[in-house]
Amino acid sequence: MWRSEMTGRGLVATTILLALAIPAMAQDEAGPQAKRPTVARNAPPSANATVNLINLLVKQGVLGEEQAQALIKQADDEAYVARQAVRDAASKADGAEKKASTAADAVSPPGTKRVTYVPEIVKKQLRDEIRAEVMDKAEKENWASPGKYPEWAQRLRFYGDVRTRYEGDFFPRGNAGQFAVNYNAINTGSPYNVLANGPNANPYFWPTYDTDQDRNRARLRARLGLDANLFEGFAAGFRIATGDTSSPVSFNQSLGGSGGNFSKYAIWLDRAYIKYSPWNDLTFQAGRFDNPFFSPTDLVWYRDLGFDGAAIQARFQVQPGITPFVAAGAFPIFNTDLNAGSSLNFNDINVLPGKAPSHDKWLLGAQAGGSFQPAPDVDLTVGAAYFHYLNVQGRVSDSCIAVTAADFCSTDLTRPSFAQKGNTYMALRNIRPTFDAAGNANPQFQYFGLASDFRDLVLSGRLDLGYFHPVHVILDGEYVRNLAWNRDDIAAKVLANPLPVNATAGCATAPCPQTYIGGNQGWMARMTVGHREMKELWDWNAFVGYKWLESDAVVDAFTDSDFGLGGTNLKGYFIGGNVALGPNVWATLRWMSASQVAGAPYAVDVVQFDLNAKF
C-alpha cells in the first residue's frame, strides 16, 4: 500500500514537471486556435504526450478528473505566458536588428554587406525581462490565474464564531430576594420614589434581581469580524455580535426574547479599531479592541470585554526564554451628553433650567510582566497591573427638588451607566422635602451611585506544564485589591442607602439604614488539564477552580457575567470540560456554584451546555 501511494505521488510530481517543462515553441505547434485536450477515463490518444500521461493516471485512479483538468490548465497558462514572452522578445530583437542595420548603412560605403549578430546571452536577458513583465501584468490583472483573489482581497481576513447554549439557573430556598436590589434598572431608567407615605406618593416597590425562581434558557451567540492588513504596519478591523442588550459583558441572545414569536434579534458593533505595529513586538491601537492586558482569569475583566480608547503594548526578548512586556492605555468609560441638563433648577425653582457640567469617566491602566521558559516544557507568565478609575465614585448633589421622574439634580451623572450587582451604593440626590396643599409630602425620586472609589492592584500568573504534550497542565491565578477602599467613608455613605420597609429588624418606616459589611479583595485559582485548543477530533480538556470576590474589590460592571449570574460579593467553585467534535467544533459543559461573601443570603447554581463552532 505504501509503495502504491509513493508511486502515485511520484507520477503526479512527474506529470506536473512535464506540464511545466514543455518548451514554449513546442506548445505553439498546435497553433493559437488549437482545441484544449480533454481529460477523461476513456479519452482517445492525444498528440500531446503530457495529456496521454494524465489520461493514463486518471484511468488508474491516481488522479481525479478535476485534478487532471487543473494540471492541464496550469500548463496552458504557463505556455501562454511563455509564448507571449518569446513573441515579444522576437519582436524587440527584430527591431534592434533593424536599428543596428540602419545605423551601419549610414556610415558604411555603398555596396558594403553586413550580418547583424545578437549574442545568445542578450537574447536570453530580453526573454527573461519580457517574461517578468508579462507575469507581473498577469498577476495584477488576474488573467494568468483566473479564480485567484485580487491583491487587495488577499489582505482581508474574515473570521467568526457561533455558540448555542442551554443554561439552567437554580436557586435554593432561603435566598433573601428583597436585598437583591437592581440598582442598574433604576439608574438606567426612571429614578425611584423613596418616600412611602402620603396620598400622592408612588408605591414603594423596589426592582430586584431574581433570587428564588429557577430559569431554563436557550441562548445564542454569533460574531463576525474582519481584519484588514493595510500597509507598512497599519491594520484595521471591526466585529459585530449578538446580544440581548448593549451590555459589555454578555453577547448572549436569549432565544424567544426580543418580543418572542420568532422575532429578529439585534446586532451590535463590538469591535472597531486601527492598529499600527512598526515591528512585531510593538503595537499601538485605538478604537474598540480586545483587552490589551494579560488577564488569565475573569476575576477582574470578563474574557470577551471590549476596551474603548487607546493602548500600547511592547515586548522584547532579552535572551532566550526571557521576554519582558509592558502595556498601558487610557479608556473612556462614560462621556457626558452635550444636552445633559435639568428640567428644573437644582436649588431655586424660579431660576431657568440649565445644562449639567461635563462629568466624563475614565479608566487608566498599566501593566508590566514577563514570559519565562526555565525548561523546554515549562512556560511561566506573570504580570502586575494598576488600574485607576476617574470620576466613577458617586457624589451627593446640591440641595434639589425631585418631585417627578423628569427632574434633574447636579450629580445625577455620577451614577453608573451600566452595572451588574454586588457593589455598594449610596443615594446621590440631596432632596429638599416639599409638601402639597394638604400638607402631604411630595414624592422624592432618587438615583444611586457607587459608594467606593476604585484603584485596583492586580497580580496575575499562568504556569503551563507541557511534559505530556499535547496534554498540558495549566495553572491560572489572579489576586486583586482595591487600594482606594475606605471602610469608614463607605459606611457613612451607605447609611443613606434606603431599604424596603421591614427589611431589617426594628425598622418600621422608610427609609431604613443599612450596615456596611463589604470588602475590597478578591482572588481566583483554576487548573486545566488537557489540550490547550480544540483543533482536532477528540481533543479535550477539563478544568476546576475557586473564586472569592468581595463587594468592592472591582467595578462589578466588567467582571464575569456567568458565575453567580454576574457581579461581585460572590464566592464558590466551578468545574467543567471541553471536547472537540471535529476541527473547530467542540462542546462545553460547565457547572458553577456561587453564594454571597457577606450580607443577606444569596446562592445560585448555574449549569451551561454549549455547542461551539468557529471559522
From TrEMBL:
Alphabetical UniProt keywords: Signal
Amino-acid biosynthesis keyword on record: no
Biased composition (Basic and acidic residues): 91-100
InterPro entries: Porin_5 (IPR032638)
Region ranges (Disordered): 91-110
Domain of life: Bacteria
Signal peptide start and end residues: 1-26
Keyword Signal appears in the UniProt entry: yes
Pfam families named in the record: Porin_5
UniProt protein name: Porin
Species the sequence originates in: Bradyrhizobium campsiandrae
